[in-house]
C-alpha cells in the first residue's frame, strides 16, 4: 500500500521530533492539522499519531514550551 502525502509529511515531522527528542506545542498542533486537513485520518496517519503519543507518554519525546 502506498503511503499518502499527508502520512509522509506526518512521518517526517515525527522523525524530526524523535531526532530532537522533543516537540513543541506548535509542532504537535501542526501534526494534528496535517492529519485532519483532508477531513479523514487514515490508518497510516492513525498509527503515526499513536506512535508519537506513546513516545510522549513514555518521555522518549518531551513536550516543550517555547
What is the topology?
Elements: H1 5-20, E1 22-24, H2 25-36, H3 43-57, E2 62-64
Parallel strand pairs: 1-2
Largest sheet: 2 strands, parallel
- Secondary-structure-based class equals mainly alpha
Strand elements, count: 2
Helical content, roughly?
55-70%
| Mean pLDDT reading | 90
Q: Roughly how many Å is the radius of gyration?
A: 11 Å
Note the overall shape: globular
Order of helices and strands: HEHHE
Query: In percent, how much strand structure appears in the residues?
Result: 5-15%
Separation, N- and C-terminal Cα atoms = 37 Å
Count of helices? Answer: 3
**Sheet with the most strands: spatial strand order:** 1-2
Low-pLDDT sequence parts = none
In short:
This protein is mainly alpha-helical.
How does this structure look, described?
This protein is mainly α and 66 residues long. Helix content is 65%, strand content 9%. The protein is built from three helices and two strands. It has helices at 5-20, 25-36, 43-57; strands spanning 22-24, 62-64. The protein has a two-stranded parallel ribbon. Helix 1 packs antiparallel against helix 2 (25-36) and helix 1 (5-20) packs parallel to helix 3. It is globular. The N and C termini lie far apart (37 Å).
Amino acid at each position: 500500500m502506498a503511503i499518502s502525502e499527508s502520512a509522509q509529511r506526518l512521518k517526517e515531522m515525527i522523525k524530526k521530533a524523535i531526532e530532537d527528542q522533543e516537540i513543541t506545542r506548535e509542532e504537535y498542533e501542526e501534526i494534528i492539522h496535517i492529519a485532519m486537513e483532508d477531513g479523514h485520518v487514515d490508518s497510516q496517519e492513525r498509527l503515526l499519531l499513536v506512535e508519537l503519543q506513546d513516545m510522549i507518554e513514555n518521555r522518549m519525546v518531551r513536550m516543550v514550551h517555547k
